[in-house]
Structure formats: structure tokens, C-alpha cells
Amino acid sequence: MSPDSPPRSTDPLLDPARRPSPRAKTLWTVEIALTWLVLIAALVAWAVVDPDRRSWHVAVAVVVVPVAVLATIVVPRWRFRVHRWEVTDEAVYSRVGWLSLESRVAPISRVQTVDTERGPLERLLGLSTITVTTASSAGAVRIGLLDRALAEKTVAQLTEIAARHRGDAT
User: Fold this and answer.
1) Does Membrane appear among the keywords (predicted)?
2) Is residue 5 over pLDDT 90?
3) Is the pLDDT assigned to residue 3 strictly greater than 50?
4) Cβ-based neighbours of 80, under 8 Å, separated by 6 or more
5) 10 Å Cβ neighbour count for 155?
């Protein structure tokens, strides 16, 4: 663990110490809002194409609009509270989800590659996602939506730790 890392949690599988960047909430809000806007645009198109069903349009809008607003406000904040990650000399830990939670632990000795990815919205917000590929059938461990500088520092840290564990446990 690096000197500037937060103190170790007692059970990292349940509660790794670090969170994504606070800007992750902005990214999730934009993604969710865009998804709901597509549905709302379809509802508007339906109203234009089929004006004889005004009561149906209103009924659907009364359900969809509040759910869209609630999801856009609540889900990003909920995900931010749940998403956690941590890198130690022994393992990479992650916890993600909002309805269904997934916790992963990847022993350092099983790390094969460490990749960084930045989509268009991530680049705009200065965020990066780290993917740690291991010798596991469960797939890679993703540490999502870190500040770009922290992601680069974490990749360097993982590379250095993995180099010390040259024995392959695969």
C-alpha cells in the first residue's frame, strides 16, 4: 500500500477503502439522462404520430417522467456510495453495482495485464478506467472512473507490485 493510501479496511472484500472520482457521478448522470431522453423522445414522437390517444400519452408520461427524474438523481449517488476499489501488495479489490453488487479480489500473483481506457465522456471529465486482467475464468477486474492522474499512478503501482511477484500462480 502506498503511503498516501487511506488506512486498510478490516474486510476489503466487503468494503475496499477507495472510491471513484466524484466526477463519476456526473458521468453516470449524463449517461442515465441520455438514455431516458431517448425514451421520452420516442413518447413525444408517438404523441405526434398518434394524436388520438392523448389519455394514453398522459398516462405513460405521468409514469415515465418522474421515474426518469428519480433515476437520474438517485442512481449516480447510490452507485458512488457503493463503488469501491483498493490495491495492496497482495491483491486488487473492487466492488461495483447498484441493484446487484459484485465484489472481486484478484491476487497480485495472478495479474497478467493492466490496461487503461478512456471513453469520450471520460476524457471530457478527466477520468480513466483501469482493467486488471488475471488468469481467472471470471474475467478482468475493473477499477472505474478514477481521476486520470490517480489512474496513471495506480497503473504504475500495480506494475511495480506485480514485478515483485514474478512467480506465476496460473
Assistant:
1) yes
2) no
3) no
4) 19, 20, 22, 24, 25, 28
5) 19
